[in-house]
Amino acid sequence: MSADLMSAENAGERLAEFLAQGRVTLLTGAGVSTDSGIPDYRGPETARRARNPVRFQQFVTDSEWRQRYWSRSYLGWPNIRDKIPNACHHALQQLDQQGRVQGLITQNVDRLHAKAGHGGIELHGALAEVTCLSCGSLRPREQVQEQLRALNPDFQAKVLEWAPDGDAELPTQATAGFRVVSCTCGGHLKPHVVFFGESVPRDKVEQAYGWVEQSQGLLVVGSSLTVFSGFRFVKRAQACGIPVAILTLGKTRGDPLAALKLEAPAGPALAQAVQLLAGSGPRGDSESGAPESPPSPGANPGR
Questions:
Q1: Measured between alpha carbons, how far is 217 from 219 in angstroms, rounded to an integer?
Q2: Could you tell me where the DSSP H helices lie in the chain?
């Protein structure tokens, strides 16, 4: 273990102390899903990809960008679809069962929290759904996968690397000739996720703010908080005098605002905290303080 990392036991004890103070809002990022085999944005190569994503305006205005996206996603989607929740997802869901969670806000688009039985706000949407940019209809991603397979029965390409967000690195020339599916209305189909250049739907942000303001703490897990869409909740908590704890590897944008920063493997640390807290209720818990049921991570999250 690196000298910079805490042991899971020590981190779990510190987390348990933080969580015992009352209900917390959870904010999760890509680091929660790495133990499920989904890449995050750390390291030189993933950082390079993150600086050159498909932007919203490119996608909606340029057929070659749509072809590039869907060909890569066609190969990358099964790598997301077939992943299963890890110890971190299950531990967070257990904290919710213990009555310690005001609400879950996730920046991830892999829907692994939902697979673990934990509903919440999918801040950036979910790859499991596809929307039409013209008529607004939604359909399962797997339905689009079958249509893409029918249109491109001989499509094969060497995957150079699995990339974050259900993408796959392919040789540049490999996407030429790939046929893209359109909606029955003729509109362009887009994964139901927030692209760079798009804004998170305001109703999602307002509901998440409400959870933060009603909680006794904000626990950030597996996020560097580099993107403002997540960092804003740390800023809101600080403005409201609500303590922030961060459990993640490496430095984060929110470190100066955190009351507690823990660098430890998230899954084991959370599992340790769950075990220590079993059988004891959060301070200040009451029936009147129970959170409103979170939205189902089903067909139309946050809209």
A1: 6
A2: 8-19, 44-51, 56-61, 63-81, 87-97, 112-115, 141-151, 202-214, 228-239, 266-277
Closest to 156 measured CA to CA, from 181, 180, 173: 173
The C-alpha atoms of residue 254 and residue 233 are separated, in whole angstroms, by 10
Under DSSP, the state recorded for 106 is E
Written as one letter, the residue type at 105 is I
Taking the chain (303 residues) in runs of 10, the rounded mean pLDDT of each run is 75 97 97 92 47 84 94 92 97 97 97 97 97 98 97 81 73 83 97 94 98 98 95 98 97 97 96 91 48 41 32
Pick the CATH number of 1-38+84-124+200-287 from 3.40.470.10, 3.90.25.10, 3.40.50.1220, 3.40.50.300: 3.40.50.1220
Residues with a known catalytic role? 124
Judging by beta carbons within 10 Å of its beta carbon (0-12, 13-18, 19+), is residue 203 exposed, middle or buried? exposed
Q: Cα–Cα distance between 257 and 236 in angstroms, integer?
A: 11
Choose among 260, 249, 247, 258: nearest CA to 220. Answer: 247
